[in-house]
Amino acid sequence: MSQSVVVPASDTATLPLDWIRPQFPALAQVMNGSPIAFLDGPGGTQVPQRVMDAMTDYLIHSNANAHGAFITSQRTDEVIAAARGALADFLGCNPNEIVFGPNMTTLTFAISRAIGRELLPEDEILVTCLDHDANVAPWLALREQGIIVHTVDIHPENCILDLKDLISKLNHRTRLLAITYASNAVGTLNDLPTIIQLAHDVGAWVYVDAVHYAAHGLIDVQQLDCDFLVCSPYKFFGPHMGVLYGKREHLERLHPYKVRPASDVIPDRWETGTQNHEGLAGVTAAIEYLADLGRLVSPQVSNRRGAVFAAMTAIRHSGEKLCQVLIEGLLQLPGITVYGITAPEQILWRLPTVAIRMTKHPPAAMAKILGEQGIFTWHGNFYALNLTQRLGVEDQGGLLRIGLVHYNTLAEINRLLAALADMDLTR
Questions:
Q1: 17-39+318-422: which CATH architecture?
Q2: pLDDT tens for residues 350-378?
Q3: Is-contact 273 290, C-beta < 8 A?
Q4: Which residues pair with 188 in a beta bridge?
Q5: Which residue positions does the secretion signal occupy (predicted)?
């Protein structure tokens, strides 16, 4: 694999947890006398106080629909523009290439329908075994009009995408590759620069699901050269919303499904109905939080994009270290199977999202036992249905997922490992 996907971290890119954790009021919660360990980040992260404040401030001082002739509406227009600018800095693109929606799934269905208008029977689309179903089902739906959808396999022993299988399925009829930046179930990080180039070589577009990756590392859509990329702010410390990046030429040429009075100028033509304006205020605050973190770890940065770069570089570096500790600890426990990459020399190709199964307890029981101790994890398939089916665990309750983000600590990892060790002693 090419190493170009990995963001290098400087030796000084350490995370100031004594500054980070107080930003998140939820982290102060206690359950049965112990602090709650939020190891459920892949399902949605906790949010900084400033995000709540921004949303409340909007509802008090700016609550109105857009494009009106009065002050609260004008403030709403400013909130929308500010959020678009913040997301542009977060993703590395132009603000008019940012589209907002209720969630990634809804945005993906909208784009898939628009792309489907241009496809012919027997055109081909590729999806993968690693993806969340939100980047699979919208493309499978195009089979109704004769589109052929193929699934790219993985190496089940480490959950890495099978590049030979991908290459064998790419051909002159491939119109689009839908692929995740990183698996939301087992943490595998795809080599997107190599994969995107392979797809572009046969003339295919690439639709990237970065929902899971966005909390863990820098995204640069121009460097990736992807055609579309989607993410969800509630997975990176913001409110529940969806965000789509699309290359300007695609957003201008494709025809969206929209109401007639709506603007035909990008990006507005892709935003159906009234947006979640208070959510947009929260999105800007979330990105400002990341930028402030970046300014702390790299005081020399001169703009918000540079600050985001510094923050996400430090977060990526910290995640690698936490992941190594977690995997090493899990591998020492009897009766535990770890899915995905475990080799230390390949740790750069995964995120600190680790899926396991235990011999004595099904995932649902494990999650319940841990939850009663104030250790919050997820169980099931996490909508990564292709993957749990491919691993043969879908009909056995799926997986237990441990998801670390940058506010998690080594103490929380050790607490989890101790709880799992105790669990192995019980029947």
A1: Alpha-Beta Complex (3.90)
A2: 999 999 999 989 999 999 999 999 999 99
A3: no
A4: 350
A5: none
